[in-house]
From TrEMBL:
InterPro entries xref list: 4Fe4S_Fe-S-bd, 4Fe4S_Fe_S_CS, Helical_ferredxn
PANTHER family per record: ANAEROBIC SULFITE REDUCTASE SUBUNIT A
Pfam families attached to this UniProt entry: Fer4_22
UniProt entry keywords in alphabetical sequence: Iron, Iron-sulfur, Metal-binding
Protein name as it appears in the record: Anaerobic sulfite reductase subunit A
Organism lineage: Bacteria, Pseudomonadati, Pseudomonadota, Alphaproteobacteria, Hyphomicrobiales
Record organism: Pseudovibrio axinellae
Gene: asrA
């Protein structure tokens, strides 16, 4: 094995310094923590907020925490939150205005005062999801100013997965379980008998400069091999797979397949899948006034293609049935997204499978649609 030039070791007892340095540099650390029996993302005050020793069991429509029996800090997989909660917040004020005494109206843009984020524990699939949303919010004719500011300022501390959930299928989507680019610092957690350390691989000058402030040593061949062994284990544990060869053409061919009727019987049109999905980006704007009618505000909020209102054009909804809405979602994710943005809208994180209350599984739906053709 050739030794990469940029691999170092940080001991577990020194990792807390990462948080101190980030806070000193004006970042708000955001990462995984346990809240209400789920691992969510939230602002972290230090390493002690991480879900030490916790893992989770997840499958279609189910999620529960369990103890791992060790002190791993990142020994779990994705929960319901993703980084879009911070880069593309679920509710944000766009502008506000007030009536003036002479009967006019003054408007001022809302300023996004959010401090810069340091994302801790970004998994490979989610790093790809951020890159997918970059295409949506930054690469088109219109750049989203809120996303753009938050994204430019964000620092990404990635964590390579050492385990996979039953709902994960990043290997099928070529998005994981090991990060490839787009991070400032990548960590792989290694627990080996009484040793507990992180292989640290900087991916940017900010990553190198962070590392310079944390005690570290050059990684041995054994440490590098142990880290690669961790991601190999995650690869082997991958809970699901999907055949994405010609999936775009297959879905376009099956626009009228009876399978969509079966889905209509199960799908609740609740939109959970779109809320949990790290790439879904739809939103609506809503105007509100106070009780006096003198003050008005415009807010942007997440919206879902599963609501009737989403496709309402004067006189009615373009997609009036659950059949048409589920089909729209799946075909957009895995087919039309490729035409629109040059990339799949799915990164194989499995969230839509876990957080669907009736356990609808898109990998299974694609398989059934494919099989129905034979
Ligand atoms: S469609 Fe489902 S598996 Fe794919 S990225 Fe969205 S939530 Fe994850
Ligand atoms: S697929 Fe599941 S999560 Fe998505 S809208 Fe239907 S019931 Fe809700």
């Amino acid at each position: 094995m050739t030794k990469p030039n940029n691999a170092f070791v940080i001991q577990r007892e020194d990792l807390h310094i990462l948080f101190d340095v980030l806070i000193e540099r004006g970042y708000t650390p955001v990462g995984p923590t346990v809240r209400e029996a789920v691992i969510v993302y939230d602002e972290l005050s230090g390493l002690e907020d991480l879900p030490e020793g916790w893992a989770e069991e997840q499958d279609a429509g189910t999620y529960s925490l369990k103890r791992r029996g060790d002190n791993a800090l990142f020994g779990f997989n994705n929960g319901p939150h993703s980084w879009k909660n911070y880069l593309f917040p679920s509710r944000v004020k766009l502008w506000e205005g007030d009536k003036t005494e002479d009967g006019g109206f003054t408007v001022k843009s809302a300023v996004d005062t959010q401090k810069k984020f340091a994302f801790i524990g970004v998994r490979a699939c989610d790093l790809h999801a951020i890159q997918v949303q970059d295409k949506v919010f930054l690469d088109g004719e219109y750049r989203d100013p809120i996303y753009s500011k938050r994204r430019e300022e964000a620092l990404v501390i990635a964590v390579n997965c050492g385990q996979a959930a039953k709902t994960c299928f990043c290997t099928s989507m070529n998005t994981g379980p090991r990060v490839s680019d787009g991070y400032d610092l990548a960590l792989t957690e290694i627990l080996d008998n009484d040793q507990h350390y992180f292989l640290a691989e900087p991916g940017s000058t900010s990553g190198f400069s962070l590392l310079a402030e944390i005690p570290h040593s050059e990684a041995s061949q054994e440490a590098i091999a142990a880290a690669r062994g961790c991601t190999k284990q995650a690869q082997e544990q991958m809970g699901r797979k999907i055949d994405i060869s010609d999936v775009k053409e297959m879905l376009y061919r099956n626009y009228d397949n009876d399978r969509w009727d079966e889905l209509e019987k199960r799908c609740l049109s609740c939109g959970n899948c779109t809320m949990a999905c790290p790439t879904c980006f739809c939103s609506k704007v809503e105007d509100v006034t106070d009780l006096t009618g003198n003050h008005a505000e415009r807010w942007r909020e997440w919206e879902s293609c599963f609501t009737m209102d989403f496709s309402y054009i004067h006189g009615g909804s373009v997609r009036p049935t659950t059949r048409s809405r589920y089909r729209q979602w799946l075909v957009h994710k895995l087919a039309a997204w490729l035409d629109q943005f040059g990339t799949s809208g799915c990164v194989g994180c499995g969230r839509c499978i876990t957080w669907c209350p009736v356990g609808i599984d898109l990998t299974e739906e694609v398989r059934l649609l494919r099989n129905s053709e034979n």
